[in-house]
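TA notes. Do not distribute before section.
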Amino acid sequence: MSSRSCKISSCAIAADCVAGKRVGVGQELDCITRRNQVKSAENLIRIAGVQLTEQEIAAVVEVLRSGHLVAGEAVQAFEEHFAKEVGACYAVAVSSGTAALHIAYLAVLQPGDEVLVPGFTHISTASMVHFANGRPVLCDVDRRSFTLDVEDAAQKISARTAAVAPVHLFGNSCDIDGVNRLAQGHNLKIIWDAAQAHATRYRGRDVGSFSDLVTYSFYPTKNMTTGEGGMIVTNDPELYEGCKLLRGHGQTRKYCHESFGLNYRMTDIAGALGLKQLQQLPRFVEKRRYNAAYLNERLTKVDGITVPFVANSIDHSFHQYTILLDLDQFRCSRDEFAATLKTQGVEAVVHYPRAINQQPALRAGTVPLPNCEWLSQRVMSLPVHPLLSTRDLEQIADTVIRVAARMRR
């Protein structure tokens, strides 16, 4: 019974709960809500946390006081250090992760080209293909890793396929060897979407070191932030020069435009912040991995819950700690499970409640993506960010275990 169809008074529901009588899921959720009111904002363990040090604030203030706010020395230093950190030859800083994708696609696509895109990711991976005058071809994903199913992608290659855009989702690397074989066998360019994968490693290499182009986002919830911002890294000097032209109106010197372009520059304010955040990235990711290991230890043996899958070849950076619910084992939906966690002080979120082929913008004419659609009903992310205390981690695990026991069939 859903909470909407519940006609029993709250007093009667509460009495039945206290007496241990069986009630409907919707009624039980109402009871839990009344007995454990949603905690105030300062007590709720949030899904993400951002904390800036005095050094980071001082770096931004220094830029503000200088009066030189557009892309300048701070951005250039950020680009150089970021490229070195990920093991790439070149880096181009831009205004957002979406801008990074847009420029990367524009750099390699011709009008009408098709790009293989996983159907379980943020819509920008697909939508920027459209805005680069290409056509996104949606592919299914692997149910364990949530990343591109290379075999499904191979079946969707056509004469118009020019590129593949695999996503390192939630900080988990995709099958890089498999994608490389696919691309080499069909002469495809690769645009790796690493928006959520700062410091993720595959077979000992940072995911940013692979060809052809790798894009990043620095949105506030990411493993590091510039407020808003993005980065493109590459080992190809021609692609590097092309991306720089696209970022700044195609301008090579003042009022000399070698090509058409866009204004996707990063400000020096963001560059200064990014440079300081980059210095802390190893510590941030180490803490995320520690938090994920603790949650794994506590939740692995909980019936109905599958913790994140990580292959032996991958060092996951845990932008998100995303579990799977076995809905056959629970008397509630995933959304009801998440709502109940929040009443007890733990914020859980869903990335993503719809596969891209289910989005109104792309729905017409798309083929079913069974794994993407299956995952969209079962995934749920728990807090894993670096600001969590030991007590926070204990509360997260205890709450998930308690709710799972209460909601089990």
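Switch to the second chain here.
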Amino acid sequence: MTTQLVVDSSVAVKWFDEREENAAVALRLLEVFVDGAIEVIIPDLLFYEVGNVLLKKWPHDPYKVQKGLERLWHLPWLLFPLRDSLLTRTAEIAEQCGITFYDALFLVTAESSDIDLITADEKFLKKVGNFPFAKSLSAFQG
């Protein structure tokens, strides 16, 4: 059985800038993902968040933003469908942990799929420490 993971936007944005902290680990995760050794499940929110980051990273280069988004879109993601029960659980976790609804959605995606969430956001990890399936990108051993 293929290993499945959820990655959040903090990981995906590292695929576009090798100077980012832990970019080498993120790029290794991407390589393993593209090679089919792991499957990555995401809520479609990832596209919106990464698109925002790319617009800020390359504000005067719409071609580069477009190519980045196309590259992201064509990865072999497994999209996790949003359901009303997830909205309620996402709101609960966001409130409980003091995190944004957006960040909580990635956590709920992992929780609902019974798999690990990989994040590069260490502040987020501290806030969700009671969820043992939330893991740091720096610990990825792909």
